[in-house]
From TrEMBL:
<protein>
    <recommendedName>
        <fullName>mRNA (guanine-N(7))-methyltransferase</fullName>
        <ecNumber>2.1.1.56</ecNumber>
    </recommendedName>
</protein>
<dbReference type="InterPro" id="IPR039753">
    <property type="entry name" value="RG7MT1"/>
</dbReference>
<dbReference type="InterPro" id="IPR029063">
    <property type="entry name" value="SAM-dependent_MTases_sf"/>
</dbReference>
<feature type="region of interest" description="Disordered">
    <location>
        <begin position="267"/>
        <end position="295"/>
    </location>
</feature>
<dbReference type="Pfam" id="PF03291">
    <property type="entry name" value="mRNA_G-N7_MeTrfase"/>
</dbReference>
<keyword id="KW-0489">Methyltransferase</keyword>
<feature type="compositionally biased region" description="Polar residues">
    <location>
        <begin position="216"/>
        <end position="228"/>
    </location>
</feature>
<keyword id="KW-0808">Transferase</keyword>
<keyword id="KW-0694">RNA-binding</keyword>
<feature type="region of interest" description="Disordered">
    <location>
        <begin position="216"/>
        <end position="250"/>
    </location>
</feature>
<feature type="domain" description="MRNA cap 0 methyltransferase">
    <location>
        <begin position="318"/>
        <end position="673"/>
    </location>
</feature>
<keyword id="KW-0949">S-adenosyl-L-methionine</keyword>
<keyword id="KW-0507">mRNA processing</keyword>
<dbReference type="GO" id="GO:0004482">
    <property type="term" value="F:mRNA 5'-cap (guanine-N7-)-methyltransferase activity"/>
</dbReference>
<dbReference type="GO" id="GO:0005634">
    <property type="term" value="C:nucleus"/>
</dbReference>
<keyword id="KW-0506">mRNA capping</keyword>
<dbReference type="GO" id="GO:0003723">
    <property type="term" value="F:RNA binding"/>
</dbReference>
Length: 750
């Protein structure tokens, strides 16, 4: 970077602690760790500063301009981690929270010296010697905060020579300016650290922050192959080249118009075969530690998902590798787009979010959440599969530095209720098996130990800004009661203004497939279908198979034929879903999922959500989801992520099979607009099942205990929310947050 040639826009007076004649800047005024550096910024400039001289800033400077007084509060070694992370070696890699600009004094090298007045010469010489000293000692100068809460890091030019004749490089420095809080956030989240450390696992893939496309060099890396076919990375087209992303180009027409909120869709390669269905009873019966889950579907999911291991190697072998990456991309995009505005005021301040990840599995989305621009103050994951949760806890330990608080709770979300009473008549919150990162020492490496805790560790007045249920809401649709229970729990735990996001099988597309099977759809006088065959839909060259029993197909056809069908009839539409990823079953690449699932008709979803106070913001088939975000100019970060997350194969696309299968999924987003008015059908039965352990309510906590816990509760509440957001809370909101914290402490201490 050369001496600036543009017109200076502002003049500043730079002052620094006096240069020690013996000893180094680092030993005399240095910071040897990050907390000291930030503390010095809070303390303000020291009193012993001496004026060095005048410097100038240019059009690349921040707006509002830098302060007139440029005060050096001390020095930091360039090897110090905070310096490396913020201003590193690579000048093109400045984090988004910092702005880079040039600061200079007038040049006095060569012929320039002749035109300078003696006063200017003296001024420039002082600054150039200062820059040389920084260079020689391998330090940067830390500039005090200005009234906009911005501080700076002043670094000498890379090409400066600490000895010899003065050259142009001695008369300028590079200044990195940024606001303290976003910088702290950045350091805490360690976006760059996450990218550097490449936490690559089966579904935790990387999301680069906005702006990466500006330096697009080498971003496109075909998985496991460096053979670049020259495909234009900016113009990914679906395999068959369609432009709206909704038609695969196969001959296809839905026979019925009433395809539960119709999609205009087309998917090919659909077969129908009559096959004997595997008896799912064995799943229910096979679940040991019997009765852990009262529901057979939940027990089957526990059994199946707890045992499911798909290592990185086998995942890469899968013929559905890019489809899985595409699924991950949809989730990451949904997550990154979130910006809920919730109360108390934390949402408005754009502060860190409280996240509840339902059916979180092995915590594969943790890596996506910690990269969210707003940061995460609390992450709670819940799932029915105990084995998966243990893996998730291990994963959380690995990114401990990026997680303030993290808890995993084992619950069947169609029946159990974490953090709330099951009914207004209930006296007690349920005890649920849980594990918390914050309960452990940093060095814990053994098997994560789960313990039973009331509410699973969620306090009765604790809420979330975002609730996510990825690739799992279909497990809630077995009965209306279970789906209601799920939505009620979501509503109770979600703050007004908060979002529920989900991905699931797109019932509209599945039905369109069914309609295209050429099954006998005639009805007899009593409007029953005469069809008696099972229906099997095969998509993606047979890699995906969806199988329905005749009685379910009949119900679906009836609901399609009869527009007066009540939403109550749209539950329990069971199918079994199989993804055959490769031929090597022993290596875990065989049948990926073969569990009973239930269709998720959009009208049923909308209806229950509305009763729970949630408004549908969108439901987008994955093809549509992609088409909407395909333009790199309007969706730069999402588009970049297609490459970073290895969504595209070496032809810059997905295989036809993968693209067809991805059409089977949709993404959904709701916003909570009011409190729930839902009347739970299973409420009496559930209330009777309550256990007998003492209830926990804040008002019942001994005032002495409460007083004793208050300082810690306040400290933890502040820590969770972040100082900036905390300062913006009203007294009442602070009290609420501290109350939540006290209740949690009491829960945790038993
Ligand atoms: C396809 S996996 C998705 C996991 C994770 N959300 C993801 O996107 O990677 C479905 C998850 O739903 C969970 N699940 C199934 N039925 C459930 C239930 N009744 N309650 C809670 N979780 C359930 C399974 O254990 C499994 O972890």
């Amino acid at each position: 970077m050369p001496y600036p040639t543009g017109n200076p826009t502002n003049k500043h007076m730079i002052s620094s602690p006096s240069m020690p004649a013996d000893g180094t800047l680092q030993t005399s005024y240095g910071f040897s760790n990050t907390p000291d550096l930030f503390k010095a910024l809070e303390d303000g400039a020291p009193s012993n500063l001496k004026r060095l001289g005048d410097v100038y800033s240019y059009a690349d400077g921040p707006s509002p301009p830098l302060s007139r007084d440029f005060l050096v509060v001390g020095f930091a070694d360039t090897a110090l981690s905070v310096v490396r992370k913020l201003v590193g070696d690579d000048d093109d890699d400045t984090p988004p929270c910092l702005q880079k600009c040039l600061i200079s004094s007038k040049r006095m090298d060569g012929s320039y010296a002749k035109s300078l007045r003696p006063k200017d010469m003296e001024n420039s010489k002082a600054f150039s010697l200062f820059m040389r000293r920084l260079k020689k000692e391998g330090v940067v100068a830390i500039i005090a905060k200005d009234k906009y809460e911005r501080f700076g890091i002043l670094k000498p030019s890379e090409s400066i020579h600490p000895e010899g004749e003065l050259t142009a490089d001695d008369f300028f420095g590079i200044c990195y300016v940024g606001r303290v809080e976003p910088i702290k956030d950045f350091l805490a989240k360690g976006i760059r650290a996450v990218v550097d450390e490449a936490i690559v696992d089966e579904s935790s893939v990387l999301w680069k922050p906005t702006g990466v496309m500006a330096t697009n060099n080498g971003l496109w890396q075909p998985p496991g192959n460096n053979e670049d076919t020259g495909a234009d990375p900016f113009s990914w087209k679906p395999p068959d080249g369609d432009t709206n992303g909704l038609s695969s180009g196969n001959d296809f027409e839905a026979t019925f118009q009433n395809t539960w909120d119709t999609v205009e869709s087309g998917v090919g390669n659909v077969l129908s075969t009559k096959r004997k269905r595997k008896d799912n009873e064995e799943h229910g019966g096979a679940n040991n530690e019997n009765d852990f889950h009262s529901n057979a579907g939940a027990a089957a999911a526990d059994e199946f998902y707890s045992k499911l291991t798909r290592s990185l190697d086998t995942r890469a072998e899968s013929r559905l590798f890019h489809m899985r990456s595409f699924n991950g991309w949809v989730k990451a995009t949904q997550i990154q787009e979130l910006d809920p505005r919730t109360k108390p005021d934390r949402g408005k301040a754009g502060g860190p979010m409280r996240v509840l990840d339902l059916a979180c599995g092995k915590g594969g989305d943790l890596g996506k959440w910690v990269l969210h621009a707003r940061g995460i103050s609390n992450y709670v994951g819940s799932d029915v599969a105990r084995g998966s949760l243990r893996d998730a806890a291990v994963r959380a330990r690995q990114i401990r530095q990026k997680l303030k608080r993290c808890t995993f709770i084992c619950a069947d979300l169609g029946s159990d209720v974490p953090g709330r009473l099951k009914s207004p008549n209930s006296k007690y919150m349920q005890k649920l098996s849980m594990w918390s990162l914050q309960d452990e020492s940093e060095h814990e490496t053994g098997t994560p130990e789960f313990r039973m805790l009331r509410g699973g560790g969620i306090a009765s007045n604790e809420k979330f800004d975002v609730i996510s249920i990825q690739f799992a809401i279909h497990y809630m649709m077995q009965t209306k009661q279970r789906a209601q229970r799920f939505f009620e729990t979501v509503s109770q735990l979600l703050e007004i203004g908060g979002n529920l996001i989900a991905t699931t099988i797109d019932a509209r597309v599945v039905i369109a497939h069914l309609m295209n099977l050429g099954l006998d759809l005639h009805f007899d006088e009593s409007r029953n279908s005469t069809m008696d065959q099972e229906a099997i839909i095969e998509v993606g060259g047979g890699a995906c198979r969806i199988q329905f029993e005749p009685k379910v197909v009949k119900r679906i056809f009836q609901s399609q034929a009869d527009s007066s069908t009540c939403v109550d009839d749209l539950f329990g539409l069971e199918y079994s879903f199989t993804l055959v990823e490769g031929s090597d079953h022993a290596a875990g690449v065989g049948n990926a999922v073969n569990l009973p699932e239930w269709l998720t008709p959009i009208p049923a979803l909308k209806c229950l959500a509305a009763e729970a106070g949630l408004e549908l913001e969108y439901v987008q088939n994955f093809h549509e989801f992609f088409a909407i975000r395909n333009d790199p100019n309007t969706h730069t970060a999402a588009h970049s992520a297609l490459y970073n997350m290895k969504v595209l194969n070496r032809n810059g696309s997905l295989s036809t099979e993968e693209w067809e299968i991805s059409h089977l999924y949709c993404a959904v987003k709701f916003r909570k607009v009011s409190e729930s008015t839902m009347k739970l059908d299973d409420i009496v039965e559930e209330a009777e099942e309550e256990d007998e352990i003492a209830p926990l309510r804040l008002k019942q906590i001994d005032p002495l205990v409460k007083a004793k816990l208050m300082p810690r509760a306040m400290r933890e509440a502040k820590q969770n929310i972040g100082n900036e957001a905390w300062l913006k809370l009203s007294a009442e909101e602070k009290k609420h947050v501290v109350d939540v914290s006290i209740e949690k402490l009491v829960l945790e201490c038993g």
